[in-house]
Amino acid sequence: MFDIAIIGRGLIGSAAARHMAESGQRVVVIGPDEPTDRRLSSGPFSSHPDEGRITRIAGRTAVWSHLAARSIERYADIASRSCIDFHASSGLVSCSPIADEWVANGVEAGGVINRVSAEWVLEKTGIEITNSHPIVYEGPPAGYINPRSLVRAQTKLVEQTQSNVIKKAATSLELKLGKYVIGGAWGSISAARVLVATGAFGRELLETPLSLQRMCRTTVTAEVLPDPALPSFIMVDPPDARLEEIYWVPPILYPDGRVALKIGGNLIESNPVEQDDLIEWFQGNGSATEADSLKNCLQELIPQKKVVSWKQKPCVVTNTLSGHPYIGWVDKGLAVAIGGCGAAAKSSDEIGRIAASLFSESGWDSIISEKLFAPIFQN
Ligand SMILES: Cc1cc2nc3c(=O)[nH]c(=O)nc-3n(C[C@H](O)[C@H](O)[C@H](O)COP(=O)(O)OP(=O)(O)OC[C@H]3O[C@@H](n4cnc5c(N)ncnc54)[C@H](O)[C@@H]3O)c2cc1C
Fold first, then answer.
1. What residue spans define the domains of the chain?
2. Which residue out of 47, 232, 320, 354 has the highest number of ligand 1 atoms within 8 Å of its CB and is therefore the one to mutate?
3. In contact, 217 and 290? CB cutoff 8 Å
4. Pick from 258, 268, 302, 345: which is nearest to 93 by CA?
5. Distance from the alpha carbon of residue 324 to the mean position of ligand 1, in angstroms
6. In angstroms, what is the span from residue 325 Cα to ligand 1's centroid?
7. Which of ligand 1's atoms lies nearest the C-alpha of 348?
8. Which end of the chain is more exposed for a tag (fewer CB within 10 A), N or C?
9. Is 142 in the pocket of ligand 1 (CB under 6 A)?
């Protein structure tokens, strides 16, 4: 019997668990490690099994900028106490018709971001931007984080407290005699209160489903030589017209031994998927069209870069109706922190902290109104 159970040990769940555990609450966090072979696994899968996620303060909304800035200021503490590094300040070039809005959001949250020209970007980084959108450069701490390492760091810090970690999936969540009973192939536990932070797979555990759109995405890694001058990169209206937007993380070492640049984006034509299709999606190779268009973009933007090998992989982005994560109570004693909207890796520590505050005596603790994060249910 626990005071609080957190289901989902991804970026948000592990952060929430750490904040609760380190504030002295006795919690249990339940969530499996990444499957050893995703092609043979039936899930649950996560949206963070990767070596790089962009981090920046210049967000799409003032809320995203705030969440990022508050998280980034705690990166060094998490890394030093866990002895697990996960952040690199490679800087970020962004090119978007609304780049000025991103700058305003970022500057308000404390970021240092400047307008730059295409010539400046070419000279400093070798990237050839040919569309006419405004371009901005965000210096350190912008760059990237290693999301796998961040989950390991948060989990390690939870394990250093009196709290418990169950590295398995939950298959049921039921309210029995005023307590939540959480079950799985490993047995069951009960808890007075529960936080569900299960990312793309969460909705099914809840009696009343949340309004979430799960979007299939394909990422491509291009094996290239290390290039310390190359920053993280975001571009709206990239060279291949099939894509709405692309981003990349500069060349880093992947577990297969390759140093590779990872590029991803979103196709203009893409539809949400349901749970059964999601499992098949994670077991497969992703979309050939998306991979092809991402490769085209990379070759147009850095034509001089010699790519030794290409690989591609499926992933899923979980979007909410509000455009911000859902953080809040959905039933008596049952809260959620779900819906990263493709942008929550960098900000997961603050999202987890706010979710954890729901369970404190004083309740919601953020200067942002909880209304902006209110969970929305499916019709
Ligand atoms: C291709 C791609 C690129 C992205 N790029 C960026 C980026 O550059 N910058 C950025 O900030 N964000 C980025 N994101 C978004 C970011 O990765 C997500 O927002 C983030 O992972 C969301 O965290 P989460 O904890 O909600 O979900 P996850 O990290 O997916 O964690 C959810 C966890 O819950 C577990 N789980 C699910 N069901 C159960 C169950 N029944 N029982 C127990 N555990 C369960 C899963 O195994 C998983 O570990 C990207 C996402 C994708 C897919």
1. 2-49+148-211+322-373, 88-145+213-320
2. 47
3. yes
4. 302
5. 14
6. 12
7. 23
8. C
9. no
Whether the CB of 87 sits within 6 Å of ligand 1: no
| Neighbouring C-beta atoms of residue 76, cutoff 10 Å | 12
203 Cβ inside 6 Å of ligand 1: no
Report the atom number in ligand 1 closest to the C-alpha of 346.
11
Residue 4 Cβ inside 6 Å of ligand 1? The answer reads no
Give the predicted TM-score (pTM) of the model. Answer: 0.98
For residue 37, the SS3 value is: coil
Q: 346 CB less than 6 Å from ligand 1? A: yes
Cα distance between residue 181 and residue 194, in whole Å:
10
CB 184 within 8 A of CB 30: yes
The Å distance, Cα 10 to ligand 1 centre, comes to: 6
pLDDT of residue 315: 95
Q: What residue type is 73 in one-letter code?
A: E
Class of domain 2-49+148-211+322-373: alpha beta
Measure the CA–CA gap between 97 and 108, rounded to whole angstroms.
Answer: 19
Count Cβ atoms below 10 Å from residue 162 Cβ, excluding itself: 10
Contacts of 255 (CB under 8 A, 6+ apart): 51
Stretches where the chain sits below pLDDT 70 are: none
Residue partners of 324: CB distance under 8 A and separation at least 6: 61, 63, 64, 339, 341, 372, 373
DSSP string over 205-274: GSSS-B-EEEEEEEEEEEE----TT--EEEEES-SSTTEEEEEEEEEEE-TTS-EEEEEEEEESS--B--
Q: E-assigned strands of 57-205? A: 87-88, 92-95, 113-116, 135-138, 143-145, 164-166, 172-176, 179-184, 187-196
Whose alpha carbon is nearest atom 14 of ligand 1?
Answer: 342
Q: Let me know: does 235 contact 263? Beta carbons within 8 Å.
A: no
The rounded Å distance from CA 217 to ligand 1 centre is 13
Q: What is the pLDDT of residue 1?
A: 85
Write down the CATH number for the domain with range 88-145+213-320: 3.30.9.10
pLDDT at residue 174, rounded to an integer: 96
